[in-house]
Design a protein that fits this description.
mainly alpha; MetI-like fold
Length: 232
């Protein structure tokens, strides 16, 4: 369970966030289609995660396999139950779910960057990548730090959309947040259900995880502020 939680956290930190930064910078530079791109990214945030989970599940289990079979003759396969594909599918779904809101946060932060700094850097011969690295990123670094802290702090509490896709039958896809959520739904204060731990034991488990994640989060915050880029 812990392994799955760490995998999803690492994917969010090292894949989802960089992708969102690049997409935000594309929108910030007002490249062709950026307005449409921003609108499309916002649409998933209008629907609930449950609805999106149902749509995604139908798409990867029924619609997409049927299309691949009809067009290319590829044999149908349930990618959500196949041990070789289920993790990759869930990684893709989590990236999709977090991508839009991350882009909105980053693009709004970039919108507060003083345009004169960009113009000055351009006059000095800086290219697009240099402006992003040396001008934009230092200015939006507080936003990056905030998002990283939020991501790290949810390693033990987020179920990473697993329940929305698998319900109570996640099997190998279970993670720490999913375990806590499932037990909180089905357990009781006396622990009469042998398949789930009691509420007192669950509370003790939660306190133990809190004792681990709180100092870890503060350590991450200290490291980011200590070794991160400076605006000056």
């Amino acid at each position: 369970m812990l392994k799955n939680s760490l995998i999803f956290i690492c994917i969010d930190l090292f894949i989802s966030q960089p992708l969102a930064l690049l997409a935000s910078y594309y929108i910030y530079k007002k490249r062709p289609g950026s307005a449409f791109f921003r609108t499309v990214l916002y649409l998933p945030q209008v629907l609930s995660s449950v609805v999106l989970g149902l749509l995604f599940k139908y798409g990867v289990q029924s619609a997409l396999p049927e299309m691949l079979y009809q067009w290319f003759g590829i044999a149908k396969m349930d990618v959500l139950s196949n041990v070789n594909t289920q993790m990759w599918v869930m990684i893709g779904f989590n990236i999709l779910m977090s991508f839009g809101v991350n882009v909105l946060l980053y693009s709004n932060a970039m919108g507060n960057v003083n345009p004169s700094l960009i113009e000055s850097a351009s006059l000095d011969g800086a290219n697009t990548a240099s402006i992003l690295w040396h001008v934009v990123l230092p200015k939006i670094y507080p936003t990056i730090v905030s998002l990283v802290i939020v991501i790290v702090s949810q390693v033990f509490v987020s179920q990473f959309q697993v329940f929305n896709i698998y319900g109570e039958g996640a099997g190998r896809m279970a993670n720490v947040g999913y375990f806590i959520y499932l037990n909180s739904l089905n357990s009781d204060i006396l622990g009469l259900n042998p398949n789930y731990i009691s509420y007192p034991a669950l509370a003790a488990f939660g306190l133990t995880l809190t004792a681990i994640i709180v100092p870890t989060t503060f350590l991450v915050k200290f490291a980011l502020n200590r070794f991160g880029p400076r605006e000056d």
